[in-house]
Design brief:
The complex is a heterodimer.
Chain A: E1 3-12, E2 15-25, E3 30-34, H1 41-49, E4 56-61, E5 64-65, H2 71-74, E6 76-79, H3 91-101, H4 108-121, H5 137-150, E7 155-159, H6 167-184, E8 187-192, H7 195-201, E9 204-209, E10 212-217, H8 219-224, H9 229-235, E11 239-246, E12 249-252, E13 255-258, E14 265-271, E15 276-279, E16 285-295, E17 298-305, E18 310-315, E19 326-331, E20 335-338
Parallel strand pairs in A: 3-8, 3-9, 6-7, 7-8
Antiparallel strand pairs in A: 1-2, 1-4, 4-5, 9-10, 11-12, 11-14, 12-13, 14-20, 15-19, 16-17, 16-19, 17-18
Chain B: H1 2-6, H2 17-46, H3 50-59, H4 61-94, H5 100-112, H6 115-126, H7 133-138, H8 147-158, H9 160-173, H10 176-183, H11 188-217, H12 220-226, H13 236-245, H14 249-278
Helix pairs in contact in B: 2-14, 3-14, 4-8, 4-9, 4-11, 4-13, 6-8, 6-12, 8-11, 8-12, 9-11, 10-11, 11-14, 13-14
The chains are: A alpha+beta, B mainly alpha.
Chain lengths: 339, 292
C-alpha cells in the first residue's frame, strides 16, 4: 500500500507541530522518520494512523483519501513506544484481540491458528499463556508487533519501537524487524530519535526539524551528502571548525578543503571524529591535546585548537598520544556550510 | 566478614526503639478508643435488655421500613453514581475539552460541603417556597419529605466517590491502551468493556463500596429533606436518632448494630474480592462486580 502525505499541517493550540509536510512512501518500503524531540515525527505517525487528525492537507492510502477515515477503520497496525499491551490479557489474548473485535468474523479455530502462526513469526512459541508482566521488554515489544500484524494491516506504524529497551536487545530486534519486513513486505513507517536505528533499519530516512522535512534519502545518501549543518550534526558526532571561504575553497589554519557552492565569507567546517587525525608536524590546525579517552576499539582524543575550539577524534589503539601534547589536527574530509 | 554481621547496625530514621514503641502505642490506643470501643458498645448495648428486646426492635415495622428505605436509596443512588463516576472519569481522563478543570472541581464539591448545607439547598430548590416548588406542586410531584428527596440527597452526597477513585488511576494509565484497542478495530463500547473496565475494576469496586457505605449511613442531608415521618420517610440512621431521642437506647443500639454489620460485611467483601483478583486469573471476563 502506497502512502502519500500532501501538505499536512497540525497545530496543537498555538504550537505548530507539523508544518506543510508532503511525503511519498512506496508500497513495501521501510521508512524512518528521524528527528529530535519536538520535531513533529510522532505527530506525523499518529496522523497517518488516524490517532490525530490533521488540520490541513490530505493523507492518501493508495488512491483513497484516508484523511478523515477514523483509526478504527483505517486498517493500520500501530506499535506503541511502551507496547500498550493489555495487562489483564495473556499474550495469546492480546494477539487475538484485533481478530475478535473485527467486523470480519472468524471462528475460534481460525483465530487460534493465526495466533500460533504469529507467535512463531515473532519467535515466542510457547509463551502464549503468559501475561505481559511475566515477559521481558523485548518480548513485549514482539507481542505488540504480533498484535498489530494480526489484523493484516495495510500499513505498519511503529512509534519509537525500541526506545525503552537496552542497547543489545535493541540491536537484535532491529535486525529481526528488518527480516520480518522483508518476509512480509508490508509498508512500514517508524519513528525514532536514534540516528543509528534509522540508518540500520530503513530503506529511506526522512529527517525532520521543527515540523518540517529537512532532508530525505537512503541511509547512504543522507550520510554521504548531508545538505545542512543540522543534518550533519544530527546524524552523528561532528566537529565544528571556523573557516573562511574564498572562490569555492574553505580555509582553516593550514587546511584547505573543497567548498563548491558555498558563498565567500565566514563558514564552518564539519568533520566526523574519524575524519580527523593527529600529526606532530603538520600541515594542519594547531592544537593541544587536553585528554585521551581509551576505548575498546581505539583512542578518542580531545584537543583544543589555538582558536579555542574543542575537537574530538579517534586514533588507532597503538598510537602514542598523551594529554598536554602539542601538534596538528589534520583533515581527511569535511563538509562546509555557510554560517 | 564476621564483623559485618555482628556489628550493631546504625539506627535508621524512625528506628529508635523508644520512638517506635511510642508511635505504635499511640496508634493502637487511638484505634482502641476511637474505633474499637464504640463498636463494642454498640454490640453490648444492643443486647443490654436481652435477645427478645433486640429481636422486637429489629422486626418492628418501623425499623423494617427504615431498613427497606435505606436499601432502596442505596439500590438507586449507588448504580446511578457508579455510572456517573465512570462517565465523569472517562470524560476527564480520555478527552480534552473546555472546562475540564472546572468539572474536576465541581465533582469534589459534595466532599467539601457539609451534607446539611446540601439538604437546605435542596429545600430551596424543590421545597414549596423554592425554585421549582410551585411547578412541582402544580404537577403534584412530591420530592421533598418523600422518597425521591431522600434518594436525590443521598446521590448528591455520594456523587464523587466512584469518580474520585477512578480519575487518578485512569490518569496514570493514560490513553495508550484505548488507542491500541481502537487501532485494532474495537468500537468505543468494546474498548471500554474489554480494555478500560478490567484495568480499573478494583478501584471501581472500592469506589462502589465506599459509595454504598456512605449512602446507607448518610444522615445530615437526608434528615433535612426527609421530614422524619416514621414508617414513611425514615431511613435507618434517622430511625436510630428518633429511637435515641425517645429514650429507647436499646432500640437505638439494636438498629445501629444493623448499620455496623453492613459496614463490617462491606469491608469483608472488599478484602475477599481484592484477594480473588490479586492472583491473576486467566479469564478476567466479568468486570464491575456489585457488592450491595
Amino acid at each position: 500500500m502506497k502512502i502519500r502525505l500532501e501538505n499536512v499541517v497540525k497545530t496543537f493550540e498555538t504550537f505548530r507541530a507539523v508544518k506543510d509536510v508532503s511525503l511519498d512512501i512506496g508500497s513495501g518500503e521501510l521508512v524512518a522518520l528521524l528527528g529530535p524531540s519536538g520535531s513533529g515525527k510522532t505527530t506525523i505517525l499518529r496522523m497517518v494512523a488516524g490517532l490525530e487528525y490533521s488540520d490541513g492537507g490530505h493523507i492518501y492510502f493508495g488512491d483513497q483519501d484516508a484523511t478523515d477515515i477514523p483509526v478504527r477503520d483505517r486498517g493500520v497496525g500501530f506499535v506503541f513506544q511502551h507496547y500498550a499491551l493489555f495487562p489483564h490479557m495473556t499474550v495469546a489474548d492480546n494477539i487475538a484481540f484485533g481478530m475478535k473485535v473485527s467486523k470480519v468474523k472468524r471462528d475460534k479455530a481460525a483465530i487460534d491458528a493465526r495466533v500460533t502462526e504469529l507467535l512463531r513469526l515473532v519467535r515466542l512459541e510457547g509463551l502464549g499463556d503468559r501475561f505481559p508482566a511475566q515477559i521481558s521488554g523485548g518480548q513485549r515489544q514482539r507481542v505488540a508487533l504480533a498484535r498489530a500484524l494480526a489484523v493484516d494491516p495495510k500499513v505498519l506504524l511503529l512509534d519509537e519501537p525500541f526506545g525503552a529497551l537496552d542497547a543489545n536487545v535493541r540491536r537484535d530486534l532491529r535486525r529481526w524487524l528488518r527480516e520480518i519486513h522483508s518476509e512480509l513486505g508490508i509498508t512500514t513507517l517508524f519513528v525514532t530519535h536514534d540516528q543509528e536505528e534509522a540508518l540500520d533499519l530503513a530503506d529511506r530516512v526522512v529527517i525532520l526539524k521543527d515540523g518540517q522535512i529537512v532532508q530525505q534519502g537512503t541511509p547512504e545518501a543522507v550520510c554521504r551528502d548531508p545538505q545542512s549543518a543540522f543534518v550533519m550534526k544530527f546524524l552523528g558526532d561532528a566537529n565544528v571548525i571556523a573557516a573562511d571561504v574564498r572562490d569555492g575553497r574553505a580555509y582553516a589554519g593550514d587546511v584547505c578543503v573543497d567548498a563548491a557552492g558555498v558563498a565567500d565569507g565566514r563558514a564552518e567546517l564539519y568533520a566526523r571524529p574519524s575524519d580527523l587525525d593527529w600529526s606532530h608536524d603538520g600541515p594542519g590546525i594547531a592544537a593541544t591535546i587536553s585528554r585521551v579517552l581509551d576505548r575498546a576499539d581505539g583512542r578518542r582524543v580531545l584537543a583544543t585548537t589555538a582558536a579555542g575550539e574543542a575537537l574530538e577524534f579517534d586514533v588507532e589503539p597503538e598510537r602514542l598520544v598523551k594529554a598536554g601534547e602539542a601538534g596538528f589536527v589534520t583533515l581527511r574530509r569535511a563538509k562546509v556550510f555557510a554560517v | 566478614m564476621s564483623t559485618l554481621s555482628t556489628r550493631k547496625k546504625p539506627p535508621r530514621v524512625g528506628d529508635n526503639p523508644l520512638f517506635r514503641r511510642t508511635l505504635i502505642g499511640v496508634v493502637l490506643a487511638l484505634v482502641a478508643f476511637v474505633i474499637v470501643a464504640p463498636l463494642i458498645i454498640i454490640g453490648v448495648e444492643a443486647f443490654a435488655k436481652g435477645w427478645a428486646t433486640y429481636r422486637d426492635t429489629i422486626i418492628h415495622p418501623d425499623t423494617l421500613h427504615a431498613v427497606m428505605l435505606t436499601v432502596l436509596a442505596a439500590l438507586i443512588a449507588v448504580p446511578v453514581n457508579t455510572a456517573f463516576g465512570i462517565a465523569a472519569a472517562w470524560a476527564i481522563t480520555k478527552f480534552d475539552f473546555w472546562g475540564k478543570r472546572f468539572l474536576l472541581v465541581v465533582i469534589e464539591i459534595p466532599f467539601s460541603v457539609s451534607p446539611i448545607v446540601a439538604g437546605v439547598a435542596y429545600l430551596f430548590v424543590y421545597g414549596l417556597q423554592g425554585l421549582f416548588g410551585p411547578l412541582l406542586d402544580a404537577w403534584d410531584i412530591k420530592i421533598l419529605f418523600a422518597i425521591p428527596g431522600i434518594i436525590i440527597a443521598s446521590m448528591f452526597v455520594t456523587a464523587p466517590f466512584v469518580a474520585r477513585e477512578l480519575i487518578p488511576l485512569m490518569q496514570a494509565q493514560g490513553r495508550d491502551l484505548e488507542e491500541a484497542a481502537t487501532s485494532l478495530g474495537a468500537s468505543g463500547f468494546r474498548t471500554f468493556l474489554s480494555v478500560t473496565l478490567p484495568n480499573v475494576k478494583w478501584a471501581l469496586l472500592y469506589g462502589v463500596i465506599l459509595c454504598n457505605a456512605r449512602v446507607m449511613g448518610e444522615f445530615g442531608a437526608v434528615s433535612v429533606v426527609s421530614g422524619n415521618i416514621r414508617g414513611q420517610t425514615n431511613t435507618l440512621p434517622l430511625h436510630i436518632e428518633l429511637l435515641y431521642h425517645d429514650y429507647q437506647a436499646a432500640g437505638a443500639f439494636a438498629s445501629a448494630s444493623i448499620l455496623a454489620l453492613i459496614a463490617v460485611f462491606t469491608i469483608i467483601a472488599k478484602v475477599a474480592l481484592e484477594r480473588q483478583g490479586a492472583g491473576r486469573v486467566r479469564k478476567t471476563a466479568n468486570p464491575a462486580e456489585k457488592t450491595s
